[in-house]
Write a structure and sequence with these properties.
globular; 296 residues; 3-stranded parallel sheet; alpha/beta
Length: 296
């Protein structure tokens, strides 16, 4: 998919690279006010005259993972834009959409893990088939920097006509420090973590916030210390920690090494999981059938 095509249709699953018979899928998901391509693409500067996305550049991730299919997922996470409607979806709504689109494309995991009812068990396939998750600057415990956007939103709301300031800030509120929504998601995901290989990355450079410089998501929120979880810092600010112009960019080798390692481990593990999942579903269907017969 070209940059122009992705700009016209920013939402949904977009394939950036694929070999003839891919063994694994990699899906990149941006954050608040992100973009399915720009969030992973460097901007123009003296050393790099053209924007470059490490997800699609033939010398970067596609070269390192030749047997992969690399995709990005776009959704409406615009919560501070002055013009145009902003996202009214809750986090769960986005998770439901992601799982449905991934399943539709190939044939949020706490949602997928629970989809074992006979009519929607196809959605459970995403949970079974997911091997690893890399979190880059994700606020697991929330971020007080989100309040800056909330303040800016209120200022613009007072200055701009109501008709062009249409904002539902549920996403923004959900990511604030101490958010009940974020805590609920964490509580639901925690029991599932043993199913996946997980790597937490945090920003090691402060972001220029205008009046000061600070971390958008600090280490304790981005990379809580948990058993069997890998964690590392990336020497970049929040918005730049997921953009790599070359294989020598800070953090690139670290992230790609993890992806390579997980891609080697995943196929045999997923095959074994599917055997167990199919047996579990057969047993569940048999029990349901016996209960129906007994009721009659």
């Amino acid at each position: 998919m070209t940059t122009q095509e992705l700009s016209r249709e920013p939402y949904g699953i977009h394939e950036l690279y694929s070999c003839e018979d891919p063994l694994i899928d990699i899906v990149a998901i941006h954050g608040l006010n992100g973009d399915p391509l720009k969030s992973w693409t460097t901007t123009k500067h003296d050393q790099e005259p053209l924007p470059k996305s490490w997800l699609s550049d033939p010398e970067l991730l596609p070269r390192a993972l030749k047997q992969a299919r690399i995709m990005t997922w776009g959704y409406n996470a615009n919560v501070t834009s002055l013009l145009g409607a902003t996202s009214s979806d809750r986090i769960l709504n986005h998770a439901q959409t992601l799982i449905a689109q991934l399943e539709a494309d190939r044939s949020a995991l706490a949602y997928s893990a629970s989809r074992t009812s006979k009519h929607i068990q196809h959605l459970h396939s995403i949970y079974v088939s997911t091997y690893a998750i890399l979190f880059l600057g994700t606020p697991h415990n929330g971020s007080d920097k989100v309040k800056l956007a909330t303040i800016g939103q209120r200022m613009l709301s007072a200055l701009a006509p109501k008709k062009i300031w249409d904002t539902d800030n549920q996403l923004l509120n959900a990511l604030e420090e101490g958010s009940e929504t974020l805590q609920n998601i964490t509580d639901q995901f925690a029991p599932l973590m043993k199913q996946f290989r997980i790597y937490f990355f945090w920003e090691q450079e402060k972001t220029d916030l205008g009046y000061t410089k600070d971390y958008v998501v600090d280490e304790s929120s981005a990379a809580p210390i948990l058993d069997n979880i890998e964690r590392s810092g990336i020497p970049a600010c929040h918005s730049e920690m997921c953009k790599f112009a070359s294989k020598y960019s800070p953090g690139y080798k670290l992230v790609v090494a993890a992806l390579i390692r997980y891609s080697r481990e995943a196929p045999s593990v997923i095959v074994s999981r599917w055997r167990e999942a199919e047996e579990m579903l057969r047993t569940r269907r048999a029990i349901e059938a016996q209960e129906l017969v007994r009721d009659y």
